[in-house]
Design goal:
The chain has three domains: 55 residues, no CATH class; 52 residues, no CATH class; 54 residues. The chain is of the alpha+beta class. It has a three-stranded antiparallel sheet with strand order 3-4-5, with no helix packed on it.
């Protein structure tokens, strides 16, 4: 079997080819797909990637040394607090981040006197082209990112049913057509299981 980071992209390409009228807006993947080739392809196809970060990767050299960032690319203020995403600024082609104290995300700050006196608080801008892996269209850590990425758990449950409950890998299948056929039959069975479970609940 091919590596997950390859098979997922091949599957996505096939889906787009077979279903040209169905637009793909988002794709949710695990850390096996945390590579620049995947992000670059998503960018080319105008797809928003939601991918777990691989903890073994370090800080990209393209990010200015004047900005401190968390492991997911979120800027940190002088006190080490994560700054607050304030949307995309079209004029600067950058994402704006505001002081967490000014936004009410922290109760107090030891560096308050060192920051600008404006009640709006200090702002930092990050550019997507600094690093397409860290600065995705929907920033990591935001509510929108978490809500969309959480949908991936439903796929994991289906995969578990296919591979473990219906033992697809134990069938000794070696051809792509047979894999596709038995996967389709298993998916039909999973849907029937769900309908039976729902009907049983309604009767009880």
């Amino acid at each position: 079997m091919p590596d997950d980071s390859v098979s997922a992209i091949v599957s996505l390409r096939e889906f787009r080819t077979i279903n040209p009228d169905i637009p793909v807006r988002d794709v949710c993947l695990d850390s096996a797909h945390d590579n620049y080739a995947t992000y670059g392809l998503c960018q080319k196809w105008d797809i928003r990637p939601f991918i777990d970060l691989n903890s073994n990767r370090g800080r990209p050299d393209s990010i200015p040394d004047s900005i401190s960032i968390d492991e997911d690319g979120t800027p940190l203020c002088m006190a080490g607090f994560r700054m607050v995403n304030w949307g995309y600024c079209k004029q600067k082609h950058s994402r704006k981040w505001r002081c967490p104290l000014a936004c009410g995300k922290v109760g107090s700050c030891p560096c308050k006197e060192k920051c600008p006196p404006s009640p709006y608080g200090r702002c930092v801008y990050t550019k997507p082209d600094w690093d397409i892996r860290l600065y995705t269209p929907v920033p990591r850590g935001t509510v929108e990112y978490k809500e969309i990425y959480n949908n991936r758990t439903s796929c994991e449950r289906v995969n578990n049913r296919v591979l473990n409950d219906y033992h697809l890998h134990d069938m000794g299948i070696h051809t792509r057509k047979r894999y596709s056929f038995f996967t389709m039959i298993i998916c039909v069975c999973i849907h029937l299981d769900a309908r039976l479970k729902k009907r049983t609940k309604l009767k009880s």
